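Sample A.
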Amino acid sequence: MKKISISAVTIFLALAISFPSQALGQGGGKVLMIPREGFSADLDLMIKMEIGVMRLLLKNAGLDVDIATTTGLPIWGANEKVTEIKMLRNINIDNYAGVIIACMAGGGGSNPPSSVSPEAVAIVKKALSAGKPVAANGNAPALLAEAGVLKGKKYSFQRDPLKPTARVALTLPAFEGAIYSGSGLVQDGLIITSGVCANTEKVTGMENGTVKLTSAFIAAVAKK
């Protein structure tokens, strides 16, 4: 039997899920996506299987998507790229129905917490204060932890970030006071998290939560 690739399964799931724009009220809406930025061969998977899949699902739901980073510069992988990017400092969160954050955008995992963007932290705080849903994939919940919005909240992460393991000695103190609830999809009020992205799935074989996270985010936006 021919083996089906992880990427093929994820794309199939994204294409199979459709959210009519009517479910989001008149005119749909617009959401903000925050990815990791930079120029690296390892960004191909995030660009194709996270940004691409999220965009497809959001578009099917009648939602427009703006992508923003700290610098506003193009994101390049070995073969994939994203060029239409806004600067976070120029974003008015009042113009968006919610925020979705791709894996590798928030520190933690392969990135130190110090890599978390202050502009992204400010956007997250403003969005939640305004009653808008915020979704974070893979290690991006570290951005929410740095923003201080996970205190007393359940969240998902690939591993418990407060407990070292044989493979990962690093712990992330910003998660103190939050409630680790496994690596699958977790929603606590307006905060939606999933601990496994396409990159994590490739390395560990754990189930990629990108489609489930985006679907839950769409449902949360529809309720607003």
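Sample B.
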Amino acid sequence: MKHVPVGARQVTPSELAKRLDLVFSNQALLTRALTHRSYLNEHPETLEDNERLEFLGDAVLDFLSGAWLYNHFPEMSEGELTRMRSALVRTEQLAEFARNLSLGEALRLGRGEIVGKGRERDLLLCATFEALVGALYLDQGIEAALKFIQPLLTNATEPLLLKSDSLDPKSRLQEWSQAKHSGIPEYITVQTSGPDHDRLYVVEVRIKDEVYGQGSGPSKATAARAAAQKALEYINSSLYDK
């Protein structure tokens, strides 16, 4: 896979495919993967945005990253595998994959998203990467999707292994909660503000109806992760206070 230098010029889906050494039998799938709903709103002749492909790609990435970790790290426990998978597929990491591939150059966005620097936003880049994986899976199957993401997983895993704080706090909180027989934490969106291209979400995490932490961010996933981190800090401080 070729590394793509970041640039500001809008490139076509076919140019992107050539850069990434991808050959799509159905070029429309690739175009759809790069089409944000804001573009669809301004171009009624366009039939579909990338949200359904994003949904599919998310599931494909969960499966492939889990299988890849299982095969490459036979010594890891189930809990460690869960944490590593969560770290590999979290919003910021997938957005970094998208940046490494310069997917932002090829995004089809509406004017508002362009002005709002949508090509640089983690949430949008993450969604586009997921949609691209979904499109590749539909076009060529699971082996092609694995071949595409495997180098990215390989490069990302070693730094994650060296940085325990990069592991998903939601997974750590769930492990703690289940060990205490308290069930699975519940994440509740308590506030949403801002325009579509610059939303801010506030999320609370509750365990047995008790609020353990609150976090905010540009997506529900980011806010939930921040809430989980706050909950872990609260739990740790409570332990030290005893």
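B remarks: The mean pLDDT is 86. Residues 64 and 214 are 31 Å apart (CA to CA).
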